[in-house]
Design a protein that fits this description.
This protein has one domain (5-242). The strands form five sheets. The protein has a three-stranded antiparallel sheet with strand order 1-9-8, covered by helices on one side. It has a three-stranded antiparallel sheet with strand order 3-5-4. It has a three-stranded antiparallel sheet with strand order 12-11-13. It is an alpha+beta fold. It has eight helices and 13 strands.
């Protein structure tokens, strides 16, 4: 059933209940998840963080790679998560926080399988938020604040021209090869060449640690290769390389 996020309404959803369990089956086809700057350190110890660009808006985003192919989440075995940290943008489901007029509003996926008669109530008989919903709203507020900081971080990285395209070349157990493209990462050379005042500014904004977390997380690509051993066609080898722009790649006359 298609996802259908609607504003949470205490009248419309007064009898709604949400199941609380450790199942993440709803994310089984999720190979990229938005990453929030306040969880970069935890995520970087488990999974790769990369930048992508939205072709429609030309805006850049930081995402964590959960698989090497679309529709593949290597961190799921059945409904169970394999790893110590689950991205906040997966933990928030079936809720979301989105612009609602001139403020942020709480949304819920009315078609979610987590909506259950045996779940936690969202509202009391008096129409007030239950303790469960209150805790979810606080989590969503933390996520929204972190995402706003993440947007400022990404904007600064783009402004300083620190990103370069990367390519992952995979060879599978059956001999097939494929290139994974469309991602960017921090160019360490560009970072080291920044003027001292810009490095100090990054540090004071709390962005320098985030940059290094992203750079270190690339090593977790090996984790995805390891997790692929549980699939029908494991990855046999992987090669990561920078993608040069056409102008750089063309031989000089």
């Amino acid at each position: 059933m298609a996802i259908n996020f609607v504003p949470l309404d205490k009248e419309k959803h007064k009898d709604l209940k949400v199941a609380v369990n450790t199942s993440f089956s709803f994310a089984k086809n999720t190979h990229l998840a938005a990453a929030s700057i306040r969880e970069f350190a935890q995520l970087a110890a488990t999974m790769p963080l990369v930048f992508i660009e939205d072709n429609n808006t030309q805006r850049h985003h930081v995402v964590t790679m959960l698989g090497m192919e679309q529709g593949q989440n290597l961190f799921l075995t059945g409904d169970s998560w394999k790893g110590p940290h689950v991205p906040m943008n997966i933990l928030r489901y079936p809720f979301d926080v989105r612009p609602d007029g001139d403020k942020l509003g709480v949304y819920i996926d009315e078609n979610s399988d987590l909506i259950s008669d045996e779940g936690q109530a969202l509202f009391t008989e008096a129409g007030e938020a239950t303790e469960f919903l209150d805790s979810r709203q606080k989590f969503l507020a933390d996520l929204a604040n972190s995402e706003m900081l993440t947007q400022r971080f990404v904007a600064k990285v783009v402004e300083l021209d620190l990103l370069d395209p990367i390519q992952i070349r995979l060879t599978y157990q059956d001999g097939k090869q494929r290139n994974v493209t469309g991602m960017m990462s921090i160019n360490e050379k560009k970072l080291l060449e920044l003027p001292e005042e810009q490095v100090l500014e990054l540090h004071k904004q709390g962005f320098l640690g985030a940059i290094y977390a992203v750079m270190m997380s690339v090593g977790q690509l090996n984790r995805l290769v390891e997790l692929s051993n549980d699939t029908e066609n494991p990855i046999r080898s992987m090669q990561l390389s920078a993608v040069k722009a056409d102008a750089e790649a063309a031989p000089k006359a």
